[in-house]
Every structure is written in C-alpha cells, then in structure tokens.
Specification:
This protein has 8 helices and 8 strands, in the order ααααβββαββββαβαα. With 222 residues, it is of the alpha+beta class. Keywords: Ribonucleoprotein, Ribosomal protein, RNA-binding, rRNA-binding.
Length: 222
Amino acid sequence: MSDGKATEKEEALKEWVPRTELGKLVLNGKIKSLEEILLSNRKIMEPEIVDYLEPDMQTLTVDVKKTARVVRAGRKFSFRAAVLIGNKKGIIGIGMAKDREKWPAIRKAEKNAKLNLILVKRGCGSWECGCNEEHSVPFQVTGKCASVRVTLIPAPKGVGLVVGNKIKPVMEFAGIKDVWSKTKGNTSTTLNFVRAAIDALRRTLKVKQSPDMERKIVKVTK
C-alpha cells in the first residue's frame, strides 16, 4: 500500500460512522478480527470494517476489460475491473465492478472485494511432510467457474507454488506457499481461472475431515 493511499484510508476511517450493527461492534472494540466475523458467518456490508481490522490488506488488479454495448446513439463504452485482496494469512476476496472510467471501476471493485471475503483453511496436508505448519492446503480440493476447473493438491514444504501464473497471486494472498495443481477448461480466461482457484480455496472450510486428517491440519488462526 502506498503512503498516499494509506493516509487517505486513515483519514476516511477517522470520519467513519458505522451504519450497521457489525460496524458498531468493530468500532467499539467488541469484535477484534476478520476471522471472528467470517467464522460467525456474519455479512460484511461496510468496506471500512476491513480497513479498520486489516489496514495492511494487499490488493491486486487481476483483470481490466473495456466493454461496449450498442445504444441508439452508437456504442457506449465502459470498463470492467476485477480486484483481488488478501492478508496472506488465510483471508482472501475478489470483487468486480463497472464504470465509464478505468480507475473508478478499479476502486469500486476493491470495495466489493472487501464485502466478499472468505476464510481459507491452511495446513500441512501432504503425507510427504509432517511439519504441521500453515504452508499448504490441508487436502485435495477442486473449485470451478464456468468451464474452468482447478484442483489444488497439498505439497510438502519447499516445493513452492506449482500453479499457473495467473493464480499464483491468489495462493500468495491466501498465505499458501506450497501447492500442486491440475486444471481443466479454458484457463486463458483470466477471471474464470482466478475465480475457480478462489472457489477451491473456499471449499477448504466445507469439506469434512476424518480424525486422522484433522491432526494434519493446523488451526486457521494461532
């Protein structure tokens, strides 16, 4: 985050008056982390909640496209942006937005990403590794978006991110350091590829594990 952007957010937070009950609980110090919010399945309706609890959240514009639609007066152009955010410790989100101008579309997409955060369960799921650290996914998991399928496979420590370049930032922002992957479908479509990878990470909290597998998984938060 640049100094200018950080200062701008700090000033905005000073003037923040929460509109939701969740925002009031955060500002009053009764809720102290995004993990607490996400584990309780509460819906974040104010991006300021994320700025307040995670001021160092990383952001990356993963896709920007100029689109056009035909109207009576001719073609009307706009920009569609997709922004990825994450804290590199098990929280990640993606947001999309449109605007007539490029940068407003990106800013709107970033705000939307903050309203669509997910919690990622990390662990040491490879039977070749017994470190019990949060460096990989806890088990094999598959996500999808349109025709794209992404399967994430636990890898031992030191392997690195053996995934497509377009979804490496997704793994990095989620705090995944070692993982193998398999893909199917039209992975040249960046947005679908990224969303399929995020869907796979989302499923890490939905799959039930056996007691033996649970011992291989470390907690989302320490």
